[in-house]
Amino acid sequence: MTQKGLSPNLICTIVSSLYRLGRIGEANMLLQKILDFDFVPEHACIKVSDSAGNFDSANQFFLVLLQRGFIPNNLTYCTLINSCAAAGNVNEAFNLRDEMLRRGLCPDVTTYNALINGLCKSGNLDRASRLFHILHAKGIRPNVITFNTLITGYFRAGNTASP
């Protein structure tokens, strides 16, 4: 495909545009054609397939890529974890984090923010708070997103006292 002038970024941009226009079937068909040509796209296509808001399709696409030799990186896993946690599948998001660790990758603050966000949205503030404290033990420095996520979670739960 690259020999015909189609770069991974261009293909993923086209797929993303199709998803945004609600043309899910055409986007999925293009992703399948990419795979039929043994073209292993980069992280961007996983992000694109996730942009439709369907973790299951993004995860299926990810599994097919793994079978084709795709080597995921932190950004790939963070995208999947964020999608999974946002869909309310927090336990599956933690399973992905564990898989990430087994592959020798180190989750960063962005990955933990996605997990904390999923926990807060599911009402599991105690677990979110414990995970926040684990960040310090791991030497990962929380950022403004971490703090805003926790504050928002506690506020939505009606708990304005400090955790």
TrEMBL record:
NCBIfam families: PPR (TIGR00756). PANTHER family: PENTATRICOPEPTIDE REPEAT-CONTAINING PROTEIN 3, MITOCHONDRIAL (PTHR47941). It comes from Dillenia turbinata. It comes from the Eukaryota. This is Pentatricopeptide repeat. Belongs to the PPR family. P subfamily. Gene3D superfamilies: Tetratricopeptide repeat domain. Keywords: Repeat. PPR repeats lie at residues 73-107, 108-142. Pfam families: PPR_1, PPR_2.
